[in-house]
Design a protein that fits this description.
The protein is an alpha/beta fold. It is built from eight helices and twelve strands.
């Protein structure tokens, strides 16, 4: 049974989320802040995390940032009362995979949870699909209607990373650290060069495009 961790300081809301998720077949554990979430993750494997933003001791942004810095890639659905674009942007840049604004429609939450878990499973299987485009990690191959390419390793890793989270914004530095590593001598301009090559290779692809977020980074958008 898939297990979900809920980090939410509102007890009634935490219990509501847990009740709905259990009814949909998930095993659920609840905590009231980010520090308790980290403690729970030290002892138990979770398939997905639902986190509030404003919590005592440690907020949701800090929780997700610490997880990503530690190399923990567990999908995170962030739930918050904040609906401003800057708050959403901060959530995605911290490493959040999806975002919902309160009041939460619990039926929509269940759908989003399912989508995030399916996406995580595809990543685990080393195969990613966007429309009719299929990316095979083990062969570095991208196949779509009318074409197939074997990409250089770094280009493939860059595309695969962004395609695994359609719509999520990745900063140049995030991509640099994850694809080239923290100790690389290359600079962030390397990311721009590789993104330019990918755009050229897939300019006629009907399933996705790479979008530049000025001053921030890039994201893959499913068409």
């Amino acid at each position: 049974m898939l297990k979900i961790l809920i980090a939410e300081d509102d007890r009634e809301l935490r219990q509501l989320f847990a009740h709905v998720l259990r009814k949909n077949g998930y095993q659920v554990e609840g905590v009231s802040n980010g520090q308790e979430a980290l403690d729970a993750l030290d002892n138990t494997y979770f398939d997905l995390i639902i986190s509030d933003v404003m919590m005592p001791l440690m907020d949701g942004y800090t929780l997700v940032s610490q997880l990503r810095e530690a190399g923990i890639t567990t999908p995170v659905l962030m739930v918050t009362a904040k609906d401003a674009f800057d708050d959403m942007r901060q959530g995605f840049l911290s490493g959040t995979d999806d975002y919902m604004v309160k009041p939460v429609n619990v039926n929509e939450m269940v759908l989003r949870v399912g989508a995030l878990l399916r996406r995580a499973q595809m990543i685990h299987e080393r195969r990613q699909t966007l429309g009719n485009t299929v990316m095979e990690w083990d062969s570095l191959t991208v196949t779509w209607e009318g074409g197939s390419l074997v990409l250089p390793q770094k280009e493939f890793m860059l595309l695969y990373k962004m395609a695994s989270f359609p719509g999520r914004i990745f900063t140049r530095q995030q991509l640099m650290d994850e694809i080239w590593g923290y100790e690389t001598d290359s600079d962030a301009h390397t990311v721009e060069v590789h993104v330019g090559r990918l755009r050229e290779r897939f300019r006629d692809n009907p399933d996705f495009k790479i979008v530049t977020i000025r001053g921030v980074g890039y994201k893959v958008v499913k068409l």
